Amino acid sequence: MKTVNQTFPLDELDIKILAALQRNGRITKAALAEDIGLSTSPCWNRLKRLEDAGYIKSYCAEINFKKLAPVTEIWTQMVLSNHRLVDLEKFEKIVQPIVNISECWGIGGEPDYLLKFVVSDIDHYERLIRSLLHEGVGIERYYTYIVTKTVKHSIQPPLKEFLTSP
Hints:
CATH architecture of the largest domain: 2-Layer Sandwich
CATH superfamily of the largest domain: Lrp/AsnC effector binding domain/regulation of amino acid metabolism (RAM) domain
Number of strands: 4
CATH topology of the largest domain: Alpha-Beta Plaits
Order of helices and strands: HHHHEHEEHEH
Structural class: alpha+beta
Strand content: 15-25%
């Protein structure tokens, strides 16, 4: 998907398209057009414009990994010993290719980062942590939180409610 990053104000039809795709990314173009009350061609043109402008990041399926194999989710808070730009960039560069880190958030205050690990078991997590410590990225300390139960999980907030909240 090509991103031009040309921002433009969204009108009600654009928001309807985005909300419909958020509910069902596999909706057909004809069903999308019917859902928002447009004919297929204008709906398709709007969809392409939203994609090109970067309003739609991707189309994907959320896979239930627990159906495939044993999976353990672990949240980890990381505190770095130094906060120079070079240290932050080094840490961020090291975690990028680690496929078992599904999310990494730089956050304000302490800790510096919040990471989500998706691993086969605790031993797998421990090996990953040891490899990070071995990399010398300046981890001062870290805190581990093992997910025992998912109470609520949603990929994104509902678009309509987000755009209309005060």
